[in-house]
Amino acid sequence: MGNSIVRIQSVDSIRLLAIISVIALHTTPFASNSYHVYIIIIQFARFAVPFFFVVSGYFWGLKIRGQPTPLIVTKNMAFRIGLIFLAWSFIYLLPFNNISAFFEYGMLGPLKMAYWKLTNLLQEPSNLLFQGTSVHLWFLMGLLYALFISFIFIQRKAEKELLVFASILYIIGVLLKSYADTPLGFHVEFNTRNGPFFSTLLFSSGYFLSQRMPNEKWFIYGIGLFFMGCLIHFVEIYLLMILYGTDLSHDYVFGTYLMGVGAAMLSLSNHKILQIRFFRNTGKMTLGIYAIHVIFVGLLSPVDKITNSPLWEVGFVVVVLVLSILSTHALSKIPILRRIVL
User: Fold this and answer.
1) pLDDT digits 0-9 by tens, 56-115
2) Which of 24, 126, 261, 295 has the smallest set of CB atoms within 10 Å of its CB?
């Protein structure tokens, strides 16, 4: 894999906070009983996936530094992403993943849902290229597209062109999604969250950050960028609602980019305050938690539908997190599965 990279403890700490945010995005706390609290939580949580893209680009950049060609490192990384994507796409196609379907469709519910999912994939095979058999797997394909595009430009020593191209992709992604109802945007059937639109700029930003030596000042810079991004992000979604009647729940707007970069810089500072032993140890399991948590969200969804308690709104996130951590730890002990969870 190229040069040996020293693990940055604070990155693992922020990884844990980010994966908790991802779980919150999928468990939608307070969505049914306090919409504005839900929006605040969910929109703050939007930093998580951009953060993961940036730190992925950062460590890729470190690994190819000093190499005569980034090809070997890139091939190894692409193979690993592809393996994880295919493995979990297969897992999410299995009937056991749909146990909650017993409550809706009877004894054969899980088999029915597996069949319907397979049928949908055959009818729309393009979905497999962008999100696999579970919607959250889009991140892996977005990462793969970003890696490929960045490699092409870096191989040709066209870093400035990469920045321009990636920025154009991001702008297009925003205009075709969150800004679709504005005079600048327009509607398309394709979800620009998937693919290279947002991932490429974030990933390449991580690569550019890898050209600089991080220090504790990055902690302050990261906090500043993060909260600036939050301010812009929230102002954007509010104005979009007031002026164009859009929903307050958005994946990406322009401020989201700064949230992701800010969180990444914060994590790369390796500041002492972020070196929390439990956080950094658990943060190492982020891949497995990310991959498996949707199973537990599905299993607990019947409970969520009949429970209307503030305690449960928080508890749902905690229970999914704990079950995901325990499952990841257990799967990591099986050699053949270790590569798809750690």
Assistant:
1) 999 999 999 878 788 999 999 999 999 999 999 988 887 665 566 655 666 666 666 776
2) 126
Please tell me what DSSP assigns to residue 135.
G
Cα(91)–Cα(331) distance, integer angstroms: 13
Q: Is the distance from CB of 38 to CB of 29 less than 8 angstroms?
A: yes
- The b/e string for 268-285 (b: 16+ C-beta within 10 A; e otherwise) is bbbbeebebeebbebbbb
Contacts for 255-258: CB closer than 8 Å, 24+ residues apart: 255/228, 255/229, 255/230, 255/231, 256/46, 256/47, 256/50, 256/229, 257/50, 257/170, 257/201, 257/202, 257/205, 257/229, 258/225, 258/226, 258/228, 258/229, 258/232, 258/233
pLDDT tens per residue, range 107-145: 666 666 776 677 777 677 777 788 888 889 999 999 999
Q: What angle do CA 139, 140, 143 make, to 5 degrees?
A: 85
What CA–CA distance (Å, rounded) separates 329 from 155? Answer: 38
Per DSSP, the residues of 250-319 read -S--HHHHHHHHHHHHHHHT--GGG--HHHHHHHTTHHHHHHHHHHHHHHHHHHHHH---HHHHHHHHHH
- For the chain, the residue count is 342
Kindly state the DSSP code that residue 93 receives in the 8-state scheme.
Answer: T
Q: How many alpha carbons fall within 13 Å on the CB side of residue 2? A: 21
First to last CA, the chain: 16
Rounded CA separation 299/103 (Å): 10
Nearest Cα to 198, choosing from 177, 184, 221, 180?
Answer: 177
Q: Give me Rg for the CA atoms of the chain.
A: 20
What is the rounded CA–CA span in Å between residue 320 and residue 314?
10
Q: Of 176, 201, 145, whose CA–CA distance to 251 is shortest?
A: 176
